[in-house]
Inverse folding.
């Protein structure tokens, strides 16, 4: 099956004066139609940067990046802001982390819909309103008309996130990128939002890239999971494989540290990830790794194919399948 | 929106009352008394008889409250009585002066928008460039230069050397140019910086990023999101400064012999023309209160949060 | 020491160094005026009016043949001293009121804030003019008028800062030790707000110079023949066509002093800000 979105060898560096620091290295993945890729990682792992890069939203004066990104068979001109404008909102849509600050506080929800749709389609105000209200009720919003006419500060975080999803899906994009969509929300609302995203995916056959540091969120929705650490994808495989038998020691550590009722003490991965400026292109996890061996600090992060759809970047010979 | 306006209007009434009492009381606290002031202004020697006659003439022998109400009644109808110095009715003179000052301030506001908006935008588009540093230096200079110096330098350049513009008085359209520019200079300097800083902050904000992510054209992102949100602090601050501009015109009017409120109050102070001074206080107070009200309403119109919180 | 750290931060910029030097030169010249002024400022010489700059008269002479340079030096003493007095007194009174208001809260605070609000909605120049109208012209009346209008800023700022500090633990600790209100305010709160207040005072000093010289220019402040900078420009008005120096030099002096003070004050405030971060 032809992949909808293909990212090959994405490299992002931060420019500061005369120095460049590598933030994301050699990230590649592809997503099929209607599939969900979950990217999991801590802050600083590069997952949000990856999302922004696909959309071409990284400011050129701060970030330097290179990749080959193919959407529906066509190469994405991510460096050309003007050209990318045509794709944003229509072919690739974005849902952001803090809906409370993403909306313009002095514009009504109505104006947000109107300006978004006016940028891509020729509908008149009534058509826009009809489509928007339809979308809002699909989002399980009880009084769509009231919400449509209100200001963002009058809506709750969960409500705004639904509106964001509505705005994203209204143009039926091929790819939906959700950057930490539940992080800023209450626990009770998180589940609803993930359910909504899943429903939309099924309805419009949209491919979804969902980024989070929350394992439960990813586990609830992803078909395939990529685990990022220090700018690299350290493990990537179909969801069940990663969840049930994680190979990379970092992934295993993550799953072990999930709170659950049966355990008495939370296990943790000791140490802290290194900051951007302290990294080099070797295995940055080795200092914290329980499987640390001799060759680890010189390991050049080569991908080791465990099976057709599962690869890991780890040189430890003792990588064993551990239970979650 | 209407409810907000009515609420603010109602809050005015007590303030106006206080102002009227203060203005009225002004003349009563004079050293020597109003009668002496009147006589001095008319160049009549203040003897016991002349003082008594003056007090009778001015109605100063009546009970205080009566005097207050008589004065208040007149003031409400914009009849401020007669000037000590010129013995002519005050109202037409002061209202004419007010018109001239407001004309000057309006012209200054035109300069303000014309210069500081582009200056702010270009400084923000290329931060820390040579242009940005230049505009920062200009801002400091504008805020530090005394208006009389600027005024005279302009006169020197454009009237004396180049003979292009009239150096004093209010005669034609051209005579507005230099005085209003002088008045506006300090404000241009600071507002261009406020706008620049506001723009820089907004350019990296989340809602601008989201607007771009939705596929809006750059022009739209800039005008409807970046610029629009940046203007809010600028407009808010500006509304507060308009009052200052009207008062600061005193010096500019003096430099350019502009027949406005500033010149009027100065000459009234020198001539001890107290009814005129009284009228000045009342008019300025009214002006300020009105401006503040308009400013509040304007800010509420721009920023819906204020409306809903009220 | 804290001060050294802030100073080091400020003086990283070339412009700050430059303007401090300029300010220092002007201050020195003005203070040393009796020693370095080449001529008597009241000595007139009607045969030598409007003379161009020369060795004996570095800035030339005015309409009565007096030495402009000497008059500017002595004028600076007037301008700067009055501005200093006005600013310092307003700062002290305003800060004290603000601290008391902020610390005590309640009715006292409410009352003071109401007064501030009312006065805030009028521009100072109007209030100053009205006070001058009642009391008459002259520099002392101007100083009184400025005091009445300037204390507001200091009060507001110090009140805000006091309210922030008041809630911190060390204040509660002092209270539980039984320290009196006055002691707490002056020993604990004041030292913490002094740096910011100094920054505010520096910037305000510039505004005060502009206001005082402006009022003297209008004829309401310092009276001739006292050579205050604003008054000098006032008397030079008639001669704008014949001798621009008379207006230029005093104006430039005012500009330089205010500019220097603004640059220093602005950077001082930034340096303090960063320290807070």
């Amino acid at each position: 099956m032809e992949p909808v979105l293909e990212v090959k060898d994405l490299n992002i560096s931060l420019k500061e004066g005369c120095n460049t620091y590598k933030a994301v290295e050699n990230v590649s993945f592809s997503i099929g139609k209607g599939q969900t890729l979950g990217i999991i990682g801590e802050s600083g792992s590069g997952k949000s940067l990856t999302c922004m890069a696909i959309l071409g939203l990284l400011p050129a004066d701060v970030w330097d990046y290179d990749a080959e990104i193919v959407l529906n068979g066509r190469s994405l001109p991510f460096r050309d802001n003007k050209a990318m404008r045509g794709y944003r909102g229509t072919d690739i849509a974005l849902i952001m982390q803090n809906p409370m600050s993403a909306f313009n506080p002095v514009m009504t929800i109505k104006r947000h819909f109107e300006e978004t749709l006016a940028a891509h389609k020729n509908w008149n105000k009534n058509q826009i309103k009809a489509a928007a209200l339809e979308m809002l009720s699909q989002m399980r919003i009880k009084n769509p008309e009231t919400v449509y006419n209100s200001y963002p500060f009058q809506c709750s975080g969960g409500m705004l996130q639904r509106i964001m999803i509505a705005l994203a899906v209204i143009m039926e994009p091929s790819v939906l990128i959700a950057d930490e969509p539940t992080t800023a929300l209450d626990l009770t609302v998180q589940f609803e939002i993930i359910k909504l995203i899943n429903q939309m995916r099924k309805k419009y056959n949209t491919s979804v890239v969902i980024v989070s540091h929350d394992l439960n969120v990813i586990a609830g929705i992803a078909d395939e999971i990529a685990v990022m650490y220090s700018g690299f994808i350290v493990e990537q495989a179909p969801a069940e494989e990663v969840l049930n038998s994680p190979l990379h020691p970092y992934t295993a550590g993550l799953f072990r540290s999930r709170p659950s009722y049966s355990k008495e003490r939370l296990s943790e991965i000791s140490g802290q990830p290194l900051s951007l400026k302290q990294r080099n292109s070797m295995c940055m996890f080795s200092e914290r790794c329980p499987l640390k061996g001799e060759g680890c600090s010189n390991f050049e992060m080569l991908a080791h194919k465990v099976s057709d759809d599962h690869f890991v970047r780890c040189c430890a010979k003792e990588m064993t399948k551990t239970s979650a | 929106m209407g409810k907000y306006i009515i609420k603010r209007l109602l809050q005015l009434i007590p303030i106006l009352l206080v102002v009227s009492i203060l203005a009225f009381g002004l003349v009563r606290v004079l050293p020597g008394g109003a009668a002496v002031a009147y006589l001095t202004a008319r160049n009549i020697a203040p003897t016991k008889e002349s003082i008594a006659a003056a007090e009778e003439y001015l109605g100063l022998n009546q009970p205080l409250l009566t005097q207050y109400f008589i004065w208040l009644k007149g003031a409400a109808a914009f009849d401020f009585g007669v000037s000590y110095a010129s013995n002519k009715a005050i109202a037409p003179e002061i209202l004419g002066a007010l018109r001239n000052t407001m004309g000057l301030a309006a012209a200054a506001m035109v300069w303000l928008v014309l210069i500081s908006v582009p200056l702010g935008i270009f400084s923000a588009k290329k931060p820390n460039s040579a242009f940005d540093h230049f505009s920062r230096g200009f801002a400091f200079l504008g805020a530090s230069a005394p208006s009389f110096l600027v005024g005279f330098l302009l006169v020197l350049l454009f009237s004396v050397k180049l003979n292009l513009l009239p150096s004093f008085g209010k005669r034609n359209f051209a005579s507005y140019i230099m005085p209003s520019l002088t008045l506006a200079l300090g404000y241009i300097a600071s507002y261009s910086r406020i706008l620049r800083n506001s723009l820089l902050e907004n350019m990296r904000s989340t809602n601008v990023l989201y607007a771009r992510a939705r596929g809006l054209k750059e022009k739209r992102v800039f005008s409807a999101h970046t610029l629009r949100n940046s203007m809010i602090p600028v407009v808010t601050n500006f509304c507060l400064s308009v009052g200052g501009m009207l008062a600061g015109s005193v010096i500019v009017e003096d430099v350019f012999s502009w027949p406005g409120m500033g010149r009027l109050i100065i000459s009234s102070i020198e001539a001890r023309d107290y009814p005129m001074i009284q009228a000045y206080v009342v008019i300025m107070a009214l002006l300020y209160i009105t401006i503040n009200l308009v400013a509040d309403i304007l800010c509420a119109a721009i920023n819906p949060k204020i409306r809903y919180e009220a | 020491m804290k001060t050294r750290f802030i100073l080091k931060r400020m003086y990283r910029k070339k412009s700050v160094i430059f303007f401090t030097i300029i300010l220092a030169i002007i201050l020195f010249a003005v203070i040393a005026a009796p020693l370095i002024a080449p001529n008597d400022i009241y000595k007139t010489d009607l045969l030598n009016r409007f003379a161009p700059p020369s060795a004996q008269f570095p800035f030339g002479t005015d309409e009565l043949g007096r030495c402009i340079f000497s008059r500017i030096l002595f004028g600076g003493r007037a301008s700067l001293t009055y501005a200093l007095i006005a600013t310092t007194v307003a700062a002290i009174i305003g800060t004290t009121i603000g601290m008391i208001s902020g610390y005590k809260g309640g009715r006292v605070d409410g009352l003071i804030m109401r007064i501030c609000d009312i006065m805030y909605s009028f521009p100072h120049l109007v209030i100053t003019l009205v006070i001058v109208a009642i009391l008459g012209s002259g520099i002392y009346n101007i100083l009184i008028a400025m005091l009445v209008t300037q204390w507001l800023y200091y009060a507001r700022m110090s009140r805000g800062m006091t309210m922030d500090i008041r809630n911190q633990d060390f204040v509660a600790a002092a209270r539980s030790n039984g320290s009196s209100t006055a002691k707490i305010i002056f020993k604990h709160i004041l030292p913490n707000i002094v740096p910011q207040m100094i920054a505010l005072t520096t910037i305000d000093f510039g505004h005060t110079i502009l206001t005082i010289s402006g009022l003297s220019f209008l004829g309401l402040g310092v009276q001739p023949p006292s050579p205050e900078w604003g008054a000098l420009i006032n008397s030079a008005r008639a001669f704008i066509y014949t001798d621009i120096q008379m207006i230029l030099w005093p104006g430039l002096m005012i500009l330089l002093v205010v500019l220097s003070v603004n640059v220093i004050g602005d950077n001082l405030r930034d340096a303090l800000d960063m320290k807070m971060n």
